[in-house]
Amino acid sequence: MKEYKILTINLGSTSTKIAVYNNDKENFTVSINHSINEISNYDSIWDQYEFRKEKILNELEKRNISLKDMDCISSRGGTIKPIVGGIYLISLEMIDDAQSGKYGYHVCSLGMLIAMQLGKKYNIPAITVDPPAIDELCNYARYTGLPEINRKSSFHSLNQKATARKTAKDLGEKYEDVNLIVCHLGGGISVAAHRKGKVIDVNNALDGEGPMSPERAGTIPAGDLVKMCFSGKYNQEEMLLKLNGKGGLIAHLGTTSGLEIVQRIENGDSKAKEIFETMAYQISKQIGSCASALSGDVDAIVLTGSLSYSERLVKIIKERTKFIANIMVYPGENEMKSLAEGALRYLRGYEKIREY
Asked: Which ranges in the chain belong to alpha helices (H)?
């Protein structure tokens, strides 16, 4: 079977992650960290284009890796219009939508632009796999009690979909033939109902809906939230930051580190124990909600993301949800490998490319 070389790109607010794969085997991976001072030199994420691109090219040059030898560039997706899951060729329309800001801003959008431009220069396909804009919600999941507000699909789609496929394979089934509840447990938490290959319901993890997480508030009582907004103490930016960035564990305990919190619990910190177990309780409730969305027909509950390394957290969730279905654990986020696996499915013709 032919060996394909794949470059994967994943931009974060203060990091540039790249990896090269030979088929699904990692050749190398590196995370280039950027100081706040470096990033603050740029007025917008798009102004970082040359800076980020040069960092990528320099890392490849250090390892004597030529882009001419790549068969595909696979970048984490950005803030684009709602689309169904799959593998997409990165297009100018996609970049235009990301640059417009109408779907939000995130530096991962810049990764798509870098991938597209490098792909053009070296005449190789540039793709994105299961971008965070995936929207496969059933109609029931979209409505709220206010006609002016609809629920949106915004979650850890790349890792969710990749882990769901791996789970289905381990069950001896195809992803399109199983019903799963997949929980991405990281800085943000998304709990999704996967029905026969589609995410029919999921909390909006970007806006902090659902369980509290290390840095997100989770669903807040609406009346109290409205009163807080109009108290005169906070502006809109400060309130949004309370929901995503300064809410959840960091608001209660002053840290987003699960390891630090577990250590505090072991040292007898009762407040840390109560808040940590509250997060586990809320995750379990969200799992129960997804079980209802799937009418109780659940082949497995799947835990993934960095927090699923925590035996304490996993144990609590298992105790509360094991009556629903068997629980399978795949720790870590695996985003780089997921991007490479998507590229490989495309290159081998296992999955057709979608147009934006």
From this structure: 36-39, 49-62, 92-100, 108-122, 157-170, 222-229, 236-243, 249-253, 258-266, 270-293, 311-321, 335-347
pLDDT at 12: 85
CATH code of the domain occupying 157-331: 3.30.420.40
Query: Model pTM?
Result: 0.88
Note the residue count of the chain.
356
Question: CB neighbours of 142 closer than 8 A, spacing ≥ 6?
Answer: 150, 151
pLDDT of residue 313: 97
For residues 13 and 36, is the Cβ–Cβ distance under 8 A?
A: no
Position 226: which residue type? V
Task: Report yes or no: 25 and 341 within 8 Å, Cβ to Cβ.
Answer: no
The residue ranges of the chain whose pLDDT is under 50 are: none
φ/ψ of 212, rounded to 5, equals: -65, 155
pLDDT value of position 345? 95
Instruction: Answer for the pair 283, 305: CB distance below 8 angstroms, yes or no.
Output: no
* Domain 5-135+336-354 bears CATH identifier 3.30.420.40: yes
pLDDT tens-digit readout, 43-99: 899 999 999 999 999 999 999 999 999 999 999 999 899 999 999 999 999 999 999
What is the domain partition of the chain in residue ranges?
Answer: 5-135+336-354, 157-331
Give the percent of the chain with pLDDT over 90.
86
Our CA dihedral for 328, 333, 339, 342, rounded to 10 degrees, sits at 10
Both tokens assigned to 51? 């800076």
Phi-psi region of 215 (alpha: psi -120 to 50; beta: other; left: phi over 0): alpha
